[in-house]
């Protein structure tokens, strides 16, 4: 989802850090031999983006008290309880951006 959001920004000469608290996901993306579809998709998109955009994929320790990470963990666990297929693109992009900006302004700053 982060990769797709970066692509949607269409800004050249910018930089982004994507923080991941799953070592398995981090290593799957880094492994050139993986066949896991999501990892392959992310790696290909990152390679394409690196032509115009500086990017870093950074592993962070989960459950370490990082406010944004704790919130992401909570939301992931809440979503998992519903046992539905999540449609990440079912919310219109402008609404998604507004919700993210509001969350950041309220909870992090």
UniProtKB/TrEMBL annotation:
Gene3D superfamilies in UniProt: Ribonuclease H-like superfamily/Ribonuclease H (3.30.420.10)
Pfam families the record matches: RNase_H (PF00075)
SUPFAM superfamilies xref list: Ribonuclease H-like
Coiled-coil region(s): none
Every RNase H type-1 domain range: 1-81
Entry protein name: RNase H type-1 domain-containing protein
Organism of derivation: Periplaneta americana
């Amino acid at each position: 989802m982060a990769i797709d959001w970066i692509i949607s920004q269409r800004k050249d000469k910018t930089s982004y850090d994507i923080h991941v608290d799953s070592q398995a996901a981090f290593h799957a993306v880094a492994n050139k031999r993986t066949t896991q579809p999501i990892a392959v998709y992310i790696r290909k998109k990152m390679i394409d983006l690196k032509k115009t955009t500086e990017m870093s994929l950074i592993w962070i320790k989960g459950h370490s008290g990082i406010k944004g990470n704790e919130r992401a963990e909570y939301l992931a666990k809440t979503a998992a309880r519903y046992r539905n297929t999540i449609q990440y693109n079912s919310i219109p992009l402008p609404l998604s951006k507004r919700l993210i900006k509001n969350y950041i302004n309220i909870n992090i700053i």
